[in-house]
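The instructor's notes for this session suggest beginning with a concrete chain rather than abstract definitions. Hand out the sequence below and ask the class to guess, before any prediction is shown, which regions might be ordered.
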Amino acid sequence: MRDASQPKSTIGRFFEDFTLNETIDHPSPRTITEGDVALYHGLTGNRFVLQTSNQFARNVGYHAAPVDDIFVFNAVFGLSVPDISLNARANLGYAECDFLSQLYVGETIRARSTVIGLRETSGGDAGIVYVRTEGLDHRDIELMRFCRWVLVPKRDPSVATAANSVPELAPSVPSITVPRHKLNRHWVDRLAGSPYRWDDYQAGERIDHHHGVTIDDAEHKIATRLYRNPAHVHFDANKAEKGQPIVYGGHVISIARALSYNGLANACIVASINGGRHISPTYAGDTIYAWTEIAEKVELEHRRDIGALRLVTRAMKNRSCEDFPGEDADGCVLTLDYSVIVPRR
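After discussion, reveal the predicted structure:
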């Protein structure tokens, strides 16, 4: 019999509670429902046709519309939060994010993480925890994997841990997982929303996505609950540094991705996230704008129907992107380096 005097609730992990190379199987797997997907599209404004039209998806070889890749990322991320970043001050960045398989409505996902690095900060009151997280479906097939690093406070700042192990992370995902579907066989540009295919983009080209989205307080909290991310800094004003909850960075990624539809509507599949950084926090009331640079065009071996584009999208708060502001510009909140699959002519 368990000791009834022991507390039943948990306050989450602090930096000292992590051990290098430990593996954590996260509880509470979730089944993705039609309601989840509808709410995601409503909260982000996502319009990419492959993920929003069953009929379009069937016409190009899928049995139904797959769940949006960035939603899958956020859902897997959210499952890991109670064990990794419930008490985190900030999520600092991402690397080696590889989307390996599609997820569909009605399927169940779970997550597990391995601690791959621990480094105490110079101030001694916190540390950076590096983890590699995997998302698996109900058959235990790996859907995706990613690395992230997060700033976690120490339980006792007066006790040094001497932790100083920083993993070497690749600057990009080494290979692109290519969909088996022949995407241009029945791909209709008119229905997708853009006449521009892989052939029409050039390395170095810059695209201002023009539109802005003001993030409301209730809206970002509903989105974060949808992702099942319970981290205190997104909900509890008493635990937020400025007394105001921070918008979850993954939701900012979702907004920027949805904005990129204007100019990249045929880029329906996210193949990988090579790296990402949250430059500064976003709060309720901020308006997000975004622009994208085509960093590289990639030919895919044995495929003439599709190609890949490596993109760098920058999201700004409260300033337009018509002058293509950089990471060091006032108001930059996100730099995201990722690769997408685009139909060819």
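Then share the key points. The CA atoms of residues 53 and 178 lie 21 Å apart. The chain has a mean pLDDT of 95.
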